[in-house]
Amino acid sequence: MRSLKILFVSPEVEPFVKVGGLADMVGSLPKELAKLGHDVRIVCPLYGSVKRVGEWRARGESLGVDVGPNAHWARTWETTLPGTAVPVYFLENDDFFARPEVYNNPWGSFADNDVRFAFLSRGALALCQQLGWVPDVAHCHDWTTGLVPVMVNTTLRNTELGGVATVLTVHNLEHQGYSPARMVEFARLPWDVFHRDALMTNGSVNLMRTGLFHSTKVTTVSPNYAEEVKTASGGFGLDGVLKYRAGDFIGIVNGIDDESWDPARDQTLPANYSATDLAGKATCKAALQARFGLERNPRIPLFGVVSRLASQKGLDLLAEVLVPMLDRMRVQLVLLGSGDAHLENTFRWANDAYRGRVGVHIGFDGKLARLIQAGSDFFVMPSRSEPCGLTQMYAMRYGTLPIVRATGGLVDTVENFSEGWNYGTGFVFHDATPEALINTLGWACATYYDRPQEMAGLQQRAMAKDFSWRRSAASYVDVYRWAVESRTGVYPE
Ligand code: ADP
Ligand code: GLC
Q1: CA 119, CA 65: separation in Å to the nearest integer?
Q2: Which of 34, 67, 157, 175 has the most CB within a 10 Å radius?
């Protein structure tokens, strides 16, 4: 079958700029698609904080982007995803992207996010025109790129880009991007489309809804989440449009970059290890205990957390059970995260109140995240909602057993331990309550102390799981071909 030209338009891409798992996905799926022979290219904004990893080249020609009353300009930079030939283009425009943050600063979301991301969306398409590279598919990611499909369907319909199929991947329905109606004019889109398709509510445009409505196909990052979001309780107000698009909507579980996330090769760790030789994991645990001034004891179970501190992640439940957990169980806890100020303070308090048993680092630190994954025995992820979740998969690959709530992609990726049955890769609970969480933490702790053989079995099964992109990349290719067929009427043989 012929190879495809696939444009990724994304607000984040690892290793250049990352807020959460979206960046990991956009930084790793294209590698696998390229291995399958497809021509994949990525476009992302040049925020002030973008890390200039690898070789960068400024492209000679400026890029005119048709937004606003007088066109805006971008300088464009080209590099590649490290270790691949996949081009990554960055759009530089100081008005929109000089600031270091992606979506918000500590005072809230940027008031001009609508125009910033309208610029990204039009800019990515304008870049294709400038390159003379017409993709078969534009693959968009979350609300920031929700305007790409409507642009292709309307103002670009009679250009060379008019036949481009669009695929929108929902990474998180909780963030939908409301923008003032002025955006429609700024993005030079026809008003009537927004009225006709009911994309405006109370004078604002919902960018996610716009994307869901206009893209050729819609995907989300796990099959279970795809079901949840079609219900009133899980749809964040968009279940109606998702049900309407149900025939064009599927869930594909994320993979992980298993070359980068490999305990046998991870250069950031103090020691490497594998399922057959776990000695290095003990070294990592000792290093993690030392890093946080915890008691250097290999026989105390260590619970790790690496997370955005947002209500989605359910870490308020962990905050609620901290005292009983630490008072009743002989355990250690390490947490790396940032976000909600109240949660940050609670965990800082725990760090001071339980010195030697609790270690907390408030911030974002990719290297420390890996040490926590490697050095912990358990990984705690009590998410209220979790479209896919990558950290539980990183944990399993590093031989660290996830303790998760049964929601979204956690259901698709973690198998609950069945005592005596040699089954399971982690510990799963159902209710988003402190009681359910502490009971499950207690269960994990008891398993650690009382059933070491079963612990070892869990660990071996977790490490043996294949979470690579190999399978899911093929599913994305199927979606791309399906989208091209729907868009053009011709299946791309
Ligand atoms: P989400 O995208 O909802 O935050 P995921 O599990 O999909 O959740 O991905 C989170 C990604 O961000 C993982 O790569 C994780 O290691 C990383 N991460 C989250 N918080 C931090 C932090 N404080 N420091 C470093 N990395 C972090
Ligand atoms: C979002 C979700 C997370 C998912 C990630 C990558 O940030 O919250 O569950 O793993 O996107 O798709």
Answers
A1: 7
A2: 67
Cα–Cα distance measured from residue 64 to residue 309, given in angstroms and rounded to the nearest whole number: 39
- Rounded CA-CA distance 220/168 in Å is 8
List, in order of start, the domains of the chain with CATH numbers: 5-255+470-487 (3.40.50.2000), 279-466 (3.40.50.2000)
In whole angstroms, give the CA distance from residue 263 to residue 396.
11
**pLDDT over 80 (residue 201):** no
What Å distances lie between residue 50 and 101, 201, 280, 364, CA to CA?
9, 34, 33, 14
Reported pTM = 0.96
For residue 19, report the distance from its CA to the centre of ligand 2, in Å.
10
Q: How far is CA 489 from the centre of its chain?
A: 32
- Torsion angles phi and psi, residue 403, rounded to 5: -115, 110
DSSP string, 208-256: HHHHHHHSSEEEES-HHHHHHTTSTTTSTT-HHHHHHTGGGEEE----B
- Mean pLDDT across 327-350: 97
Q: In whole angstroms, give the CA distance from residue 14 to residue 23.
A: 5
Residue 370 CA to ligand 2 centre (angstroms): 18
pLDDT score for 331: 98
Phi and psi at residue 87, to the nearest 5°: -70, 140
pLDDT greater than 90 at residue 329: yes
Residue 106: its pLDDT value, please?
Answer: 84
Whole-number Å distance, alpha carbon 493 to ligand 2 midpoint, is 32
Q: Which of 24, 142, 338, 365 to mutate to test the pocket of ligand 1 (most atoms within 8 A of CB)?
A: 24
CA angle 101-409-340, nearest 5°?
35
